[in-house]
Amino acid sequence: MATVERLIDEARDLASMVAPAADRINGERRIPEDVVNPIIEAGFFRLLLPHSLGGSELAHPDFLKIVRIFGEADASVGWCINQNNVFSTNSVRVSESVAEEIWSNPRTVVTNGPPRPGTRAVIGEGGYRLSGRWDFSSGISHASWVAALAPVHNSDGSDAEEMRTFLIPKSDVYVVDEWHVGGLRGTASLSFTMEDHFVPKERSYGLNEPSREPGSLYVIHTTPMFASGFATVALGVARSGLDAAIDLTKSKVQHGGTNTISADTTTQRMIGEAEASWNSARAFLNEATSEMWQTVVERHELPTAQRIKVRLAGTHAIRTSADVVNSAYTICGSNSIFESNKIQHCFRDAHAIRQQIQGRPTHYDTAGQFYLGLEPKGIF
Known about the structure:
- By secondary structure, the chain is of the alpha+beta class.
- It has helices at residues 4-18, 22-28, 33-41, 60-73, 75-88, 96-103, 222-249, 265-299, 304-331, 342-355, 362-371; strands at residues 110-113, 120-124, 127-137, 145-153, 159-169, 174-176, 190-200, 204-206.
C-alpha cells in the first residue's frame, strides 16, 4: 500500500500532466482518455475505498491535500477527483458481495447526480423498477457505473416513505449530453435516464445504512466530505488564478505607462487583500476539517457542531475563492478576457463552483440558526 507521502508526490506528477491539458479538457468537455487513464491506473479514484476492497482508505485531511493539488492544475479534474472518490465511501453501505462485484475492478469509477422531480423506484419481486432522469453526473465520461437516488413507491403506487440509492452499470442507462456550460466544462457532468429498469434489491441501499467497515473515515457522511472537498477545489482554483495574476503584474505595463503594474499601489493593495482573504478561508477550512477528523477518530461519531462548522467553512471558502478570482481578473485588465489567459478559465470555474449547491449563501443561514441556539435547517 502506497504511503501518503508517495501518493502526494504521485499526485503532483499527475497534476503536472493535467495542467498543460487544461485547454483540451475545457474544449472536449471531459477529461480526455490519455489524461484520465493514468489517473485511474494510479488508483486516484480509489483513495477513499476501504483497504478490504484494495483502496487507500486515506485519512480525510490527507485526501484533501491531493484534491487541492489537482484543483490547482485544473478545476474539472479536481472536481471529479473529489466527487468520484467521496461517492466510493458508499461501498461500505452495500453487502460485501455487491461491493466486490463493483469495486474489485481497479478501473471502476461510480458517478452520481441528483434526481429530477418525478423520478421513482417501484417495489417489485426481488428488487425495484426504476424510472427517471438524473443530472450533474460528474465524471460520467470515465465512469463505469452510475448511482441513482430515488424515492421508493409500493407496487400499488403509494409512497413507501423511503429514499434509496441504486447502483447500475453505465451501459444500462441512456446518457444525455446537455452539458454546455461556462465553467467546470471538463467535468462531463451529463445526465442519464432510464425507464422501468429493474435493479436487484442488493444493488441498493438506504440513506441511513450503517457501515460494514470500522474505519473512522466511514463515520463521516458524504455531505461534509462533498462540501469540504469542493471547497478545496475552489481554493485550488483561486490559488492558481491569483498566482497567474501576480506573474502577469511583473511584466505588464498599462497603456501609456512606463512601469509594470506591480509598481502600482492599487495593485499592491488588491494583491495583499486577496492573499489575506485566501489564506483566511484556507485556514478556517483546514481547522474545521481537522477538528472533524479528530472527532471521528477519537469518538467515532460526528456531532452537529462539527458538521455545521465544516458546512460554514466550506461555503465560505467557495464564495471567498470566487471573490479572490474576481480580484485577480480585475488586476489582469483586458488580458483577462482572452481564452489564452489562465485567469479566464479560473474565473469561469470559480463562479461555476460558487453557483453549485455547495456555495449557496443559505448555508450561512443554517450556521446562524445553530449558533443562535435554534434548530438548524438545511443540508449539513
